[in-house]
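Hi L.,

You mentioned the student needs an example of a multi-chain input paired with its predicted structure. This one should do, with 553 residues in total across all chains.
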Amino acid sequence: MYKNCNNNMVTSLLLFQPAVSVGNVGQLAVDLLISTFDMPKVGYFYTDCLMPMVGNNPYATTEVNSTELSINAEVYSLPSKKLVVLQIRSPFVKNKYRLFCQTLLSWVKSSRCAKVILLSSSHAYQRDDQQLHGTPLRYLLTPAIQKTAGDLMQRLNWKEMEKIAAYPGANDAEMVLHIPGGGITKLLFSESCSNGIQMAVLLKFCSEGDNIPDAFSLVNYLNEWLQLIRSEQSSDAKATLLQWKIPRSWRLLFGSGLPPALF
Amino acid sequence: MATFFGEVLAVPSRAGVDDDEEAALALEREETPEDREIRRELEKKREVHVLWSSKLNASTGNFTDEQFPCSKFIMAIGHNSVAFLSSFVLNSGCWEAVGSVRLWNEWCRTSNTTSVLPTDTFCLFYKLISDPTVLLCQCNCYVAEDQQFQWLEKVFGCMREKDLQVTILSTCPVTDYKTPESTLTLPSPFLKALKTKEYKETVCCPLLEQPNIIKDLPAAVLSYCQVWQIPAVLYQCYTDVIKLDAVTIEAFKPVLSSKNLRNLVKDVSKSAEILKKLVATNEICNNIYT
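Structure written out for the whole complex:
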């Protein structure tokens, strides 16, 4: 359930949320969004579907705000751009991911967001021969958003996530959506299609490892569409890269320092 | 993931929903009534039961329909934290056992008795005889991820949370602590704290720095308090000793000066003796020849 932590109502045109997926790329991308725009926290998504975790403010910029407690699922907002962001920080409790999807979509409908953008990823090693070439970035649009965003995707020359044969080799006629390593991406997308929710999925093929570059790729991809950050040199990807602010919580991603005696 | 020799290995994914789980769900949809019954029985077996004794009723009034008032809830999770409260707080003899949690999971089954050893698995509640709104919880069992929310709802659901303050003590391995230096160079054990927004008192040790986080039941309790605006503080002791250890237990001593605990400590001089006995008893229990 959603619980406000101040008296502001959550109203927005755009809701961003991550899927807990391979490399945690969606979550890292959402971290970049919250950190770059210094979004204040507006509420908690309190649920028994995610494993509990707490820590001090991952986006701290001063001594004072570094002591604010954060939990496993929180909502941030940027009223000036009418953005709301849900960040998820822990994996699902076993067998609870379906319930989480239902609760999440129910909240999305009740908060009356115009559009939902789901940031996700998929296993790079499961790409077929065609997908191995070209961009590793893909999109998906529900029928409800197809009308408003479909043309723009064409103009941006983006690639739609390909469907695969349901029974490869046996029957190539029946094609299905398959997002291996995408966590709840496919379920959220399918449910949004059935419920008339305007949802766009942006995902990147990647592997587990240092996924920071993947997160930057994904937010730059998002930025191509929504122009959240305007780069001063128009097509300079490097300039855009430098403007995303890395949060404090990205320190020590691969553990503590090494004992000197090791060497 | 492809290895050096070219074979493809299935790598555990952080996605949280593996394709194996999807396949398992597909099987679930085909499960027989007997399979469904077994699954339901297993879910029932994993239910958390909180049993309050009539002593709590007697002092605070009948709360079968209403909640009982609670001004202080002090909780120890894990054997070192539990031993700390046993030696330094419960030793005063002013406490009475008023409840227990009964649960089962793959790692433990709680015992029903209130006279427990450090090696036993239990979750017990004590009330302060002179002020029945002060409740202490000794949790020496592992509460699994699917049981934590149930635990919270059933325990906090019984309390009237007006003016409630919560203190949680817990331990974890020092290897979980992230620092630019190696953890081998850290002077463990050491204490770190996390507090909710509503907690305005002074904390007894430095706050836990990012990117460190807390998980499991201590995190569940603190999250609950943060969301429902209850003043709460968690003291986490990072230690390099897994078993019951006097040095680790004594690392919690700064907490005795906190507002919630200072009036509950009667005679610290006796505590050292009780602590020594507790640790010695545990060593005897762990002896393979007994």
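You could point out the following to them. The longest helix of chain B spans residues 268-285. Residues 48 and 103 of chain B are 5 Å apart (CA to CA).

Best wishes,
N.
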